[in-house]
Structures are given as C-alpha cells and as structure tokens.
Design brief:
This protein has 417 residues and is α+β, with helices and mostly antiparallel strands. The protein folds into 2 domains: 49-214 and 320-362, Antithrombin, subunit I, domain 2 (Antithrombin, Chain I, domain 2, 2-Layer Sandwich), CATH 3.30.497; 216-317 and 364-411, Alpha-1-antitrypsin, domain 1, CATH 2.30.39.10. It contains 10 helices and 16 strands. It has helices at residues 49-71, 81-91, 97-106, 117-128, 151-161, 172-186, 286-291, 294-303, 325-333, 335-338; strands spanning 77-79, 135-143, 166-167, 204-213, 216-218, 226-231, 237-255, 260-267, 271-278, 305-314, 316-323, 352-363, 367-369, 386-388, 393-399, 405-411. Strand 6 and strand 7 (237-255) form a beta hairpin. The two termini are 37 Å apart. It is found in: Secreted. Keywords: Glycoprotein, Secreted, Signal. One of its GO terms (cellular component) is extracellular space. One of its GO terms (molecular function) is serine-type endopeptidase inhibitor activity. It comes from Lynx pardinus.
C-alpha cells in the first residue's frame, strides 16, 4: 500500500540535537565552509528575539518532559513547562552570577545573545496568554516566613513577570488557603483547589500553574462521538468517548525514522496541536521523545502536507497536581537545592526547596466553524487515509506565532492521569 512519506530533517540551533541524525536528502545538509566544518544558517523565524527565547525555554520544556516521562514510564504525563520555566527565570533575577549561570544554562539562555532576556520574556508571556489563545499560565515565588526581601529584587520581578513574591505566615492552613485563592484568581476557577499541605520547612517554593481548553478551527459533530476501543497495549483495551470526522482536513506526515505518523490540527488563536502516533501499539515512546526539540517541531510545522483523512480522537480532560522537584534536580539544577547564592533577594542564606506544578487541559467537540478553513486546500490522494488516535500517543500544544511549547502530554490512557 502506498504511504505519504515525509522525511523530516532538522538542525539543532538550541538544545539537544537529536534530530540531525534523521534521514534527509543531500539538499537538506548545510554547505561546508573551507575548513570542512558545516555552516548552519539560522532560520529567520528564530532571529526574532521573542521567538528565539520561546525556542530556548521550549527546549528546557522538552528536557523537563523527558525526565518526567522517564520517572513515570507507565503513566500519563501532562506538563505545561512554560509555567515552570517562568518561575525559574523570575528566580534568576535574585541570583548572583554562579547561580544565575546554572539557571540560565538549564533554560538555554547561554545560547542567546539578548541583553534584555527578562524584558523579552514579558513580551512572550503577553503573546501566549492573549485572550484569543484560551491559554492561562501563572508562576509565583514563595519564601519562608519572616524573610526580609530586597526591594531591588521585587521591582524587576513585578516589571517583567507581573508577580510579587509571597512570604509564608507559618500557619499551614492559612498559607494553603492563600495559595489556593491565588491559583483560583489566576486560572479563573478552572483548576481544583489543592489539599496538599505546604511543608513547614520551605525555604523557596516555586509554583507554576496553567490551564488550556482548546477550540478547534473546525468543530466535531457531537452526534458522531461514540464509545470506541482504545488500545492500552497489544493485549488490553478500554472503551473511551472518541470524536470522529470522516472528512477531516489536517496536516500530515509519516516519519520513517521515528516509525510514527504525525498530524497537526489547527486551533483558534493561532495555536495547533501536533500528534505523534507510533505505527505499532506501544507504550514505549522513548524514540519519539528523544527527538523533540523546538527546531524539530518547527521543521515539522513547515513540512507537513495538508490532506483530508478519516480522523478519530479521544475526548480529553486531564489534570495534574504534584511536584517536579526531582525532575529539576536531575537536570543539572541540584546546586539550587544545596548551596545557591540568592544574595540579590536577601542577606539570609536561602535555597530552593520545592517546585510545584498544577495543570488542567481539555478538548472536546467545540470548534469555531462546521466547515474547514477556505485557506486549507488538501492535497488529492489516490487512496483513503485514516488517522486514529486509539493507542498511546504524544501531543504537543504549540503557539504558532512564537513557536512556544505550552503543553505536552503522553497519553497512555485517555481516561485520566
């Protein structure tokens, strides 16, 4: 049977270069200079400062996702790495050079020649949380009780990140209530209140929260949603609500190196979701995960072809609440928990104790229109194409305007985290 082939090639401008090993024609390769060393032309997209910053922190996000996924290989993963990156970037405002460099390397800032990282970050946050995006993200730095904080730290924090630090009272019930109230206000009540007590020995607590409810450019017909089999593995299936569209317009490619079918569905607000579906039913998605970088995803976005297909996709409503502390400790950030220098914040020795993340993510049949966008003209195929997300898959929610990674998920069981 014929297959629509897409050989994806990408160079790594920032972060891990796992995709440069993918197959590509000779035309894909950068021309060598006189020294025999390949010269890599930077994509014009990444020359825009806000896009370059988005690529850097997205590469941090893919790193965080890989570690998080490896720590829970048999469980769903849901992350909005941007909220965690924002908290770390904000914290770096209070770090002296050694500690600042540690944070900036993890966020890939060392590969950016931008004298105003934090000003650009403000621009990025404004872009991705604009009302039409349906994406909410907020971060907060919480300090131990009775800490005296320097105003020289608070002012730039408020200017670039729009947040003020919170100092704990020492009363765990009141502190939890205050944090919950803040989360409710930031997320418009879309994320459930936490019952997790705030530990009494906190020195610095970072909190990142995010919520997204997508609206497809083309809505699904609710009458076509039905209970269908989802294959957890080669032997087990569960019945889940699956949305379907027999004539869906989507962007598609087959990556032969990763043995997966890639599809991209547009959302309103210049957003899109990219799905990675292995050719065989498997919970081992490591090979796909290792390939994920900002540049790889950007190249996919340019190379996928618009087609018409029979599409089925599970309705999703996922949430996550927990720590990503251990994941960050495994990402060369252990020194932040041991002996950092945050003397720009306070004269007292303080260190990172805990990093909390709360996220909510859902999609259903909702869409802006019952008909595909007139601008999307699918290629004519000589054979019918099916794309059924009825087995474990990875998805990436991406802001098309900046290239920022907003959510990433590993869905082994669509019934929940």
């Amino acid at each position: 049977m014929q297959a629509l082939m897409l050989l994806l090639w990408a160079g790594a401008l920032l972060g891990p270069g796992s995709c440069q090993d993918n197959a590509g024609s000779l035309e894909d390769s950068p021309a060598p200079d006189t020294t025999g060393v390949p010269v890599e032309e930077e994509d014009p997209f990444f020359k825009v400062p806000v896009n370059k910053l988005a690529a850097a922190i997205s590469n941090f996000g893919y790193d965080l996702y890989r570690v998080r996924s490896s720590l829970s290989p048999t469980a769903n993963v849901l992350l909005s790495p941007l909220s965690v990156a924002t908290a770390l970037s904000a914290l770096s405002l209070g770090a002296e050079q050694r500690t600042e460099s540690t944070i900036h390397r993890a966020l890939y800032y060392d590969l950016i020649s931008n004298p105003d990282i934090h000003g650009t970050y403000k621009e990025l946050l404004a872009a991705v949380t604009a009302p039409q995006k349906n994406f909410k993200s907020a971060s907060r730095i919480i300090f131990e009780r009775k800490l005296r904080i320097k105003s020289s730290f608070v002012a730039p924090l408020e200017k670039s990140y729009g947040t003020r630090p919170r100092i704990l009272t020492g009363n765990s019930r009141l502190d939890l209530q205050e944090v919950n109230n803040w989360v409710q206000a930031q997320m418009k009540g879309k994320i459930a209140r936490s019952t997790r007590e705030i530990p009494s020995e906190i020195s610095i607590l970072l909190l990142g929260v995010a919520y997204f409810k997508g609206q497809w450019v083309t809505k699904f017909d609710p009458r076509k949603t039905s209970l269908e089999d989802f294959h957890l593995d080669e032997e087990r299936t569960v019945r889940v609500p699956m949305m379907s569209d027999p004539k869906a317009t989507l962007r598609y490619g087959l990556d032969s190196d990763l043995s997966c079918k890639i599809a991209q569905l547009p959302l309103t607000g210049s957003m899109s979701i990219i799905f990675f579906l292995p050719l065989k039913v498997t919970q081992n998605l490591t090979m796909i995960e290792e390939s994920l970088t900002s540049e790889f995803i950007h190249d996919i976005d340019r190379e996928l072809k618009t087609i018409q297909a029979v599409l089925t996709i599970p309705k999703l409503k996922l949430s996550y609440e927990g720590e990503v502390t251990k994941s960050l400790q495994e990402m060369k950030l252990q020194s932040l928990f041991d002996s950092p220098d945050f003397s720009k914040i306070t004269g007292k020795p303080i260190k990172l104790t805990q990093v909390e993340h709360r996220g909510g993510f859902e999609w259903n049949e909702d869409g802006a229109s019952t008909a595909p966008s007139a601008g999307l003209q699918p290629a004519r195929l000589t054979f019918p194409l099916d794309y059924h997300l009825n087995q474990p898959f990875i998805f990436v929610l991406r802001d098309t305007d900046t290239g920022a990674l907003l959510f990433i998920g590993k869905i082994l069981d669509p019934r929940g985290i």
